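User: I'll paste a sequence; please echo it back and then give the predicted structure.

Assistant: Echoing your sequence first, then the prediction.
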Amino acid sequence: MSTTSSTALPDGGLKNPGPGLLTLDPVHTALLHGLDALLTGLAARLSAPEVVGPPLLSVEGLARLDYFRNFPHLGVSAGRFTPEALDGLAAGEDPGELPLRPTGHLLPSATCYGLLLSLEGRDVGEDGLRLSATGRCFRNETHYDGLRRLWGFHMREVLYLGTKQGAVEHLEKGAEFVRELAGLLGLELTRATADDPFYDRGGSRARLMALDPVKHEFSAPDGTAIASVNRHRNFFGERLDIRAGAEGPAYSACVAFGVERWVHAMILAHGTPEQALVRLRAARS
């Protein structure tokens, strides 16, 4: 363990390939996978089967969910080289100077978008539907900060679609799980209303959220938000024609975990990656 520690960088990577990008060393990787395994406990508690979401999201689908009205600055577009660029690539020209063509898709910025779009037109019944997934998510940010703020990161979500009361209960159980897990891992978290990064702070969605908060975050002592409980009302149910039987458009809610941020919180609480890993393994035993 000590040999691995001596090669680890303070930001938790073997090498920093660029802003917001990290390669995790073996200790940090063990923390990441071990924490995600513990986070699946919420899915097990709520009988939410594990699924794998799509790696790309259609621009058309996201537009119907008002993604670009609310978060145009966060999206990371997927492009492909144009046919005209192929000869230049083969000749060794600088790829950064050659033209890209939009694919009509974005990399996911949250795990739930792909799951929700996959359920369009479904009737989940009054008993509702729960799903769990960990996805690699990507966001343009104004700055990056080690494990706290990355360009690409892992987000585990446990999603519910069904009745209004079912959504409320889902978030109550999710919040209870976060508090229990934090206690088990020796983390001190505070809960507060989230301040989502809306592009237009004066827009209707931002004003509505200020009047009726739908997202609460659990944060480490340094202010890093590592988990959130999110109430969507019946917005996605209406936009995607997802129904809950006779209840009409489904209400939805999700509990989300930024896995790298949990790694950061563990190191912050226990001093070193090695000590954090010892505490994690004790919690799992």
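The mean pLDDT is 89. The chain has two domains: 2-74+109-284, 77-106.
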